[in-house]
Amino acid sequence: KVLNVETEIQKLHDTLEAKGVNSRRVADSLHGVVFEVPVDKEHKARKMPILKCGNPHMRAFHASWFGFFSTFFSTFAPAPLAAVLKKPNTLNLTRSQLQYGNIASVTANIICRFLMGIVCDRLGARKGLAFVLLITCPPIIGIAFTQSAAGFIVCRAFIGVGLASFVACQVWVTQ
Q1: Full-prediction pTM beyond 0.85?
Q2: Are residues 85 and 135 in the same domain?
Q3: What is the protein's major site of localization (predicted)?
Q4: What is the rounded CA–CA span in Å between residue 80 and residue 39?
Q5: Where are the alpha helices (DSSP H) in 146-174?
């Protein structure tokens, strides 16, 4: 009879966990905080309730994708503006100057993705992502106020650093 009750309780836990409820009340071993989502033995989330922002699993996920989205958007935003940036009453950029900006952005991105792996190994993904977001914020604002092709290219290079956030996001979400 006790075995039947334990079997029923196990089925109940399985049903609730399938719906994204941490019915076993598994807690963080360091601080004793109960996770909001069901987790495995390594404390990795087994369900992904997109609309929740519970700590640590979903908050890490949402912070990660939003950080990457913002750097992705800022890196590729100048491309559709190329026609406007070529006009004489704006920056009056030539085709080659726009291409130099693209090259600077991609080159900085490639180099910084490699370096971001080292940063994530040594300092952690959260600090790496925060660092990249802080580094890219001033050039994102600065590109709106630039008055020359050189300023545009320099801002594009520093904005390209932002795509290194991809590495930090992947490390953060998968750890």
Answers
A1: no
A2: yes
A3: membrane
A4: 43
A5: 149-160, 165-174
